[in-house]
Specification:
The protein is 35% helix and 21% strand. It is an alpha/beta fold.
């Protein structure tokens, strides 16, 4: 068995997948989060769930950070159906509101970080930065 270890100081390669419903490329919110953290070429954006599922089902060589901008509770329910797939990735969930039921359902996705869209995105940027560099 051949096991390769990363040398000290070597960072693991990361790719980022962003989901935002009906997005045609990166949303302004995603650009605000990722600007300066990583080359935009390493970011893939998806605007519909079937395409996202297809991408997530492909084995990944890099560490993948998954950022989900969830628009409403109906969409959140659809994500709960694919929770086992989502749990394979370093996931950040951005919820549409801070209602107790929405927060609880968001936690059921077992994200590394959970926030609400109206709280600003500086915290998400910091979390992505930390994920990229660890």
């Amino acid at each position: 068995m051949n096991i390769q270890r990363e040398s000290v100081g070597q960072t693991r390669k990361s790719s980022i997948i962003v989901y935002s419903r009906d997005a045609k490329g990166l949303t302004p919110e995603a650009v605000a989060i990722l600007g300066g953290l990583t080359p935009i070429e390493t970011v893939r954006a998806y605007g519909n769930l079937p395409d996202l599922i297809e991408q997530l089902a492909v084995p990944q060589r890099d560490t993948v950070i998954l950022i989900l901008f969830i628009e409403n509770t109906e969409e959140l329910s659809r994500f709960q159906l694919i929770q086992p797939l989502i749990s394979l990735f370093r996931t950040i969930v951005i919820l549409p509101d801070n209602q107790a039921e929405t927060i609880s359902a968001g936690h059921n996705l077992f994200p590394r970080y959970l926030t609400v869209n109206d709280h600003g995105l500086d915290d998400v940027r910091a979390v992505v930065d930390r994920m990229i560099n660890t």
